[in-house]
Amino acid sequence: NSGTGVATLVYNVAVAPGNHVIRADFTSSSPNYLDSSGTNTLKVTREETTLAYGGPVVIASGLAVTLSGTLLEDGVVPISGRTVTFTLGSGGSAQSCNGTSDASGIASCAINPVNQPLGPGTVKADFAGDAFYLPSSASKSVIAFAFPTRGDFVLGNKTVEGSPAS
Prior knowledge:
By secondary structure, the protein is an all-beta fold. It has no helices and 13 strands. The strands form four sheets. A five-stranded mixed sheet has the order 4-11-10-7-8, with no helix packed on it. The radius of gyration is 28 Å and the shape is elongated. The N and C termini lie far apart (92 Å).
């Protein structure tokens, strides 16, 4: 109480979304004031989330890739212990894996081996939401490439180590 008759309490509410009865009690230590109490309804809603993809965007076909993303509450506070689904590609060739966010909000998982059409594609990260958090997603454009199956060598039309190329 700051002398105005208003009391405040900052509290992190850890209950499921919905309407909850909240009660306040005042116990007077002065003979000038009576004890009092009151109730009201507290409406708890799910928190907003943001998800940012942070993994590679140039991906080698035929090898393993680790996909990762960061899940945050209100764009600031890391959210831990939540499942993020990563999907590389689309349609029938899409490959997916799940990661669980750590204390920093980072989730990651590996696809091994990558089996995607070569060229441009997408990677998507999805958090489905739960009883406490709203869903969010992120996507990035990626390029899938393949290493040559045998050695390749290219010479220019100039010299190599002082000798003309033939």
